[in-house]
Amino acid sequence: VQIAIRLQECLRDEDTIARLGGDEFTVLLQDLRSMDTVLDVTNRIVLALAQPIQLDHGETVAMASIGIAYSEKGLEPAESLLRDADTAMYAAKARGKSGYAIFDPAMNAEVVERMQLEVGMRQALEGNQFSLEYQPIVDLSSGDITGIEALLRWEHPERGRITPDKFIPVAEDSGLIIPIGAWVLRESCLRFRELREQFTLDDNFHLSVNVSGRQLQRPNIVDQIRTILEETHMDPASLKLEVTESVLVRDEVAAVEKLHQLKALGIKIAIDDFGTGYSSLSTLNSYPVDVVKIDRTFIGRMGQDEEVDAIVGAIVLLSRVMHLEVTAEGIETRQQVQYLQAFGCTSAQGFYFCRPMPFDKLCKKFSEGMNLSVKLEAEATGILNPMLAA
């Protein structure tokens, strides 16, 4: 009701506003002389909604994604304008909250693509098209394989393999990440238990699984994870849940509370893609975190950019001071391994050691002795930790 009142106050006397349903409102602006009028109204709406809303039990802030469609001659059917504005609105949502987008015919192709992906994912869940691959995580001091990370894959019957960067954002927006995430956790826990039963693995050997921000927003996520662990007879101490740094920054209070509850179950928590968000090293100790994973964008530039070397060195140094494990992602060269060893990084994963593989191939590798170690060469390379050298 308060949002409706604020929207009305942003309009001119000749404009019309309606609530179509749910959280969607539509505004009709007539007799426009230029697009400037549209943008003036749009900016007034964004600013009006940015002001805190007082509710009976506290305060909240609303954010709006706004799609704009216009008719120069006024001949288009109302249904077409509504459809185009809706398309533009979803384009605005994809760019981030509290913004707007003006309809462009090219957007139709994007919307069709997203709709096809969403429908395809629903069919994939029912038709067992999703699968998991596993990538080993290596101890950089001993070469021992200390764990595996479960990675989601989608083999579309017509389009072939669709990469996660294409379908995960759509899964997040549509809410499909909830059932998909539950499937990933359950399936990977079952396979992990099978792996432990077949091979003699160290008690510290662990499974890493990604958890999305959308999953953490669910009120019952802790109960759901607890139930899956019980059903699969998975030891919580062998599980590491990876949460991206951006999730903590965007919804810190709620996310941190859920992570504390998960830690209370005995699960370890890792911050994934660290260094790409807005949190600082000094805030690490305020999160219930056990592992820091350095983003691959930093790893790829080590040895080429002194600033990057300093950042990686600082992350490793301060993480170790706070008794956190440090894992580097995306290792592709021997030189990167040597830099990380010189910095004192705990562990790493990447194509240099092993590409992700299906479970049956993983079992075959383990039967060949891959569970013992990966050959590492910790030579004296003259590489110094820039932080220590300073």
What topology does this entry show?
Elements: H1 2-10, E1 16-21, E2 24-28, H2 35-50, E3 53-55, E4 58-60, E5 65-68, H3 78-95, E6 99-102, H4 106-127, E7 130-139, E8 145-156, E9 160-162, H5 164-174, H6 177-198, E10 206-210, H7 213-216, H8 221-232, E11 239-244, H9 245-250, H10 252-264, E12 268-274, E13 291-294, H11 296-299, H12 306-321, E14 325-328, H13 334-343, E15 347-348, H14 359-370, H15 386-389
What this model shows, in words?
The chain is an alpha/beta fold and 390 residues long. 46% of the residues lie in helices and 20% in strands. The chain has helices at residues 2-10, 35-50, 78-95, 106-127, 164-174, 177-198, 213-216, 221-232, 245-250, 252-264, 296-299, 306-321, 334-343, 359-370, 386-389; strands spanning 16-21, 24-28, 53-55, 58-60, 65-68, 99-102, 130-139, 145-156, 160-162, 206-210, 239-244, 268-274, 291-294, 325-328, 347-348. It is elongated and about 75 Å long.
- Side-by-side strand order of the widest sheet: 7-8-10-11-12-13-14-15
Radius of gyration (CA) equals 25 Å
Percent of sequence in beta strands: 15-25%
Largest sheet: 8 strands, mixed, barrel
Runs in which pLDDT lies below 50 for 5 or more consecutive residues are 379-390
* Helix-and-strand structural type: alpha/beta
The mean pLDDT is 85
The helix-strand sequence is HEEHEEEHEHEEEHHEHHEHHEEHHEHEHH
